[in-house]
Amino acid sequence: QMNFTGDQVLRILAKNEKQLSLLRDLESQKPQKVDFWRGPARPSLPVDMRVPFSELPSVKAYLKSHGLAYSVMIKDIQVLLDEERNAMAKSRR
Amino acid sequence: LERSTNSFSYSSYHTLDEIYSWIDNFAAEHSNLVSKIHIGKTFENRSILVLKFSTGGPNRTAIWIDTGIHSREWITHATGIWISQKIVNAYGKDHVLKKILNAMDIFIEIVTNPDGFAFTHTMNRLWRKNKSSQPGIVCIGVDLNRNWKTGFGGNGSNKNPCSETYRGPAPESEPEVAAIVGFITGHGNFKAMISIHSYSQMVMYPYGHSLEPVPNHKELFKLAEAAVKALYKVHGIQYIFGSISTTLYSASGITVDWAYDSGIKYAFSFELRDTGKYGFLLPASQIVPTAEETWMALRTIMRHTLNHPY
Residue B308 carries which DSSP code? Predict the structure, then answer.
């Protein structure tokens, strides 16, 4: 199983269409490194994206440099995945 | 040990083998109402299965429900299983459901993307696409919700095979999509098609590929509103609703646009729980509440479909 230790899901609230466009640019620059869980749609909707641990500094710097406010929705994906796997194993038993 | 659906936990997630085994047992235990239909093979040669709920009669009008076209959206498969069980349990007790099933058939495809789903259990829990590959192209998989004919290749789909929204080389190039198209077209009498996704709590109708309102916009708006109200009554979970392109985003080559343009007026897409804490990793403890509320929304759409023949 692929390991997602340290990967985070960031929630971004874009203020306007220009900021959404900056987020779309991020996807086109790094289609395999940024995984949109909720894509950039409209300013009233949040954008959620999974960022691998190795890409976190550069992605966070990109967001900061463009004035894009974000919060950490999931701090460490692997923690949730481990919980999920344990729950499945327990249920099976 | 004899296997049965009684020992199956509806409040936990399951592998593809476990779900397929459950489907076999489920169809065997409720053979008066349920049958298993094989509609095709996936890219990796897995069976594509559909459950048919029918009280008899040839070529009745029908309702289609699919879950799990995006393999990482595990809550949708789990909801499909629970709802299937609900249908057999409620038939005979729920007069609305009884009316529906006495006149129409219900088809549920629980694992719409079996290859992708198996992959989420073995290699990559966050895999979204199917597993098809093309010679000379490194990236694997097509987004099956961008591979339908209507609006294929338009806004909100991607021609880059490495993108999560890769549309594929041609409309219906993917066997998982072609199987559904072949089945529904061959049947010829579907009146509702509901495609279930997660997560962001929405009920939507066509179009996704265009901002243009569909001719039945007003009716679909009211029906989506009624479905969302019914859903809210169960656990107080709020959904938003509207057309896909105005509520969520532009998306081309999607299931429900194809359904609508193929003459299936009641075409809806759901985005189940949650709004932003777990995303695709919704804890199993939320399976049953999610399924319970989703069922009431589906029942609302199915009842409307029954009462408004066209």
Answer: S
